[in-house]
Specification:
This protein has 680 residues and is α+β, with helices and mostly antiparallel strands. The chain is built from 27 helices and 20 strands. About 6% of the residues have low confidence.
């Protein structure tokens, strides 16, 4: 058997590394072993940093080393170390090269390890490439590691990238946490002692760990949920690691009997594992002193998998060969998704969002568990089971009751799919399916079966978009120039371009319109006069328990937007206020249950004003940034003004939106802009 020890590899390859690459190669080898991979896999990572071999050297090395090892190290080397954020071609190249690696999980893990090591070296040496590397890791490599559950890698990348890309936020948050760290550790130690005593008195063998939430995780939660530091439920957490699976549930019962469980904070990821294989029970409890602690409960094997993700699972279940599991299939499908071919940058943004999605577990009639993103429909479920099932679906039964294809599934639902041999997909499905697999398979079916229909639909969509901006385009619609630009972006004919719009390879958006008619658009901020805007807060735009034409008022504390989940609240003055279902004020009130009524939005053309503060680095023209984004979404600004606060430079703005979906898309785009540091 070949000796794949580090010493032997260094001996065989003596003189084939420069000093820097040798250090990186050694660290890749060691981190591979830390991640529970074997010496053979670690050797592939080591050899991937070796200088390029000429034909004679290649022949010599293949004689001394197994040929498969050299081939795999060469494949890994081909994933160029170019900047993803540098330009569109680079982003597309990295994405395509990563698709090659999804046939072998070990190569993906090795590439992620190599990127972490390079990032750490750049930080240690204050390299000029640190910011560029940090962006690459935060936008792509870290989300991939998170999808595979490799905590050591994605957390290492996030910690450095946060400090590098958002230094002001890092310093503020780090200072706030460090000021209270002594108190946090004291509380955790006291809670650890109590939990340990509780388990010992009930003869449960376990070890306990505790931690304060990482800075980047805190920052992301503060930004996404718009909450304060003391409102984070899992800031302090304990981890109970038991010997047996049954002890996990016994521990849960003991914890809930001693401390008050917080409603909505219980998750059983053991019964219903996450898509990346993560298994654990998570609950949050409050003590008599009012302190909140998240308690994670798992076995030793589950803990190994949670720490090392797919690499640990692979080591347990697959050994030195194997495909790696469902998460690898999911990653491959995401990377292959046709929807992002035209704009690779959007692909990386979407991958980042994909990692933050919550998942549900839905059962087949035979009891098989299918993991899907929240909001998934029976169509997503059908495609997750089998492509042909999705293409032939006509209806579904959820928990033995008929349900529409648009119905959102919930965790624990049993879904039975009804099919017909004559059935075909509908274009409308693309408007509400949630999974990349379903969207990709539907688009591919239409691409194969209905090209002429696609061309007509694409042209119609493009003409409608142009009509919306006919004033701007007036005098700029030169057919010859348009054809030339179509060819410049890779389409031989106009039909190919229109077809790509329907197939969603090209997005029919203001962004695309600007690319095709650049001279027609200039960066402007058109602010409507406030006195011309009339938003009537008493319009009957909601139904209360199915009843229409009931006088209501939109609550100003949360100002819910059409499409957002809402609830009706009857005040002491018998007024009916419409609140967001997540309104913090409403959850704090001592109102009786009778004062709450179900409410739903009615179809209407009404619009609403929403107010936000957006923060960015000093010297950045945030007004121009916001102006460009609002124009892309067809949103009107009614007020915008520069401001300066303790949190930094920014703008106050008021915009008119038509519904919750448009608002969320707008906010998501603002948050993802690299010049924006915060929004509230």
């Amino acid at each position: 058997m070949f000796d794949f020890s580090l010493d032997n590899l260094k001996k065989i390859t003596d003189g084939k590394f420069d000093a820097e690459n040798l250090q990186i190669a050694e660290k890749i080898y060691k981190i591979a072993l830390d991640l529970k991979l074997n010496q053979t896999i670690a050797a592939i990572g080591f050899l991937s940093k070796m200088d390029k071999l000429d034909s004679a050297e290649y022949k010599k090395f293949t004689a001394e080393l197994p040929g498969e090892i050299i081939e795999k190290s060469d494949l890994l080397k081909r994933l160029s170390n170019i900047s993803i954020r540098g330009n569109k071609k680079n982003a597309a190249d990295v994405r395509k090269q990563f698709i090659e690696l999804t046939d072998d999980l070990s190569l993906i893990i090795l590439k992620l390890a190599e990127r972490l090591i390079v990032l750490q070296r750049a930080e240690a040496t204050a390299s000029d490439t640190l910011e560029e590397l940090s962006e690459d890791c935060l936008y792509f490599y870290s989300p991939v590691a998170q999808m595979l559950g490799i905590r050591k890698i994605y957390q290492g990348m996030e910690d450095i990238a946060f400090k590098t890309l958002y230094p002001k936020d890092f310093i503020l948050l780090n200072t706030a946490i460090n000021e209270n760290m002594h108190l946090y550790k004291k509380k955790l130690a006291e809670m650890e002692s109590e939990v340990s005593g509780l388990l010992k008195s009930n003869n449960i063998s376990a070890r306990i760990q505790f931690r304060v939430k990482r800075l980047y995780s805190i920052y992301r939660k503060l930004m996404n949920q718009k909450i304060k530091l003391n409102e984070i439920f899992d800031l302090l957490a304990l981890r109970v690691i038991t010997q047996e699976r049954n002890d996990c549930y016994l521990t849960l019962g003991l914890v809930h009997s001693k401390w008050l469980p917080i409603d909505g904070r219980f998750r059983d990821w053991i019964t219903f594992p996450k898509a990346n294989g993560y298994r654990s029970i998570q609950t949050t409890v409050a003590t008599a002193k009012g302190d909140k602690f998240e308690i994670q409960i798992r076995t030793e094997e589950m803990h190994e998998e949670a720490e090392y993700g797919s690499s640990a699972h692979w080591a347990y279940k697959q050994g030195a060969t194997g495909e790696g599991g469902n998460w690898l299939k999911t990653l491959h499908e995401f990377l292959e998704n046709d929807e992002y071919f035209d704009n690779p940058f959007e692909f990386f943004e979407s991958l980042k969002s994909e990692m933050r999605r919550n998942y549900i577990n839905v059962l087949t009639p035979m009891g098989e568990i299918i993991s899907l993103p929240e909001g998934s429909t029976p169509i997503d479920f059908a495609f997750a089971v089998h492509t042909n099932l999705g293409l032939k679906i006509t209806g579904a039964n959820i928990n033995h009751k008929f349900a529409k294809l648009k119905t959102e599934l919930k965790s624990g639902d049993v879904c039975e799919v009804m099919t017909s041999k004559a059935a075909t997909p509908s274009m409308d499905w693309l408007n509400f399916v949630k999974t990349n697999r379903a969207r990709n398979r539907i688009a591919r079916w239409f691409k194969k079966n209905q090209k002429e229909v696609f061309i007509a639909q694409g042209k119609n969509a493009w003409d409608k978009l142009k009509n919306q901006y006919r004033k701007k385009l007036s005098g700029h619609e030169d057919e010859a120039s348009f054809r030339k630009r179509v060819q410049e972006i890779g389409y031989e004919t106009l039909d190919d371009f229109y077809y790509a719009i329907s197939a969603r390879s090209v997005k029919c958006s203001i962004f695309q319109l600007k690319k095709m008619y650049p001279r027609a658009f200039e960066a402007k901020i058109e602010v409507k006069q406030k006195e011309k805007v009339r938003i009537d807060h008493s319009l009957p735009i909601v139904a209360i328990e199915g009843l229409r034409n009931i006088q209501t008022t939109i609550a100003r504390c949360c100002n819910p937007v059409k499409g957002e989940p809402i609830v009706a609240y009857i005040t002491t003055k018998s007024e009916i206020k419409i609140h967001s279902a997540n309104c913090r004020y409403l959850h704090k009130t001592d109102a009786n249950q009778d004062q709450f009524k179900t409410a739903e939005w009615l179809e209407s053309d009404s619009q609403q004003i929403v107010r936000y503060k957006v923060f960015g680095d000093s010297g950045i023209n945030l007004q121009k940034v916001i102006g460009d984004i609002t124009e892309n979404f067809g949103i009107s600004i009614v007020y915008i003004k520069k401001m300066s606060t303790k949190l930094g430079e920014g703008v106050e703005l008021e915009v008119i939106v038509k519904d919750y979906e448009q608002l969320q898309q707008f906010l998501s785009k603002v948050k993802s802009h690299k010049e924006v540091t915060g929004i509230k």
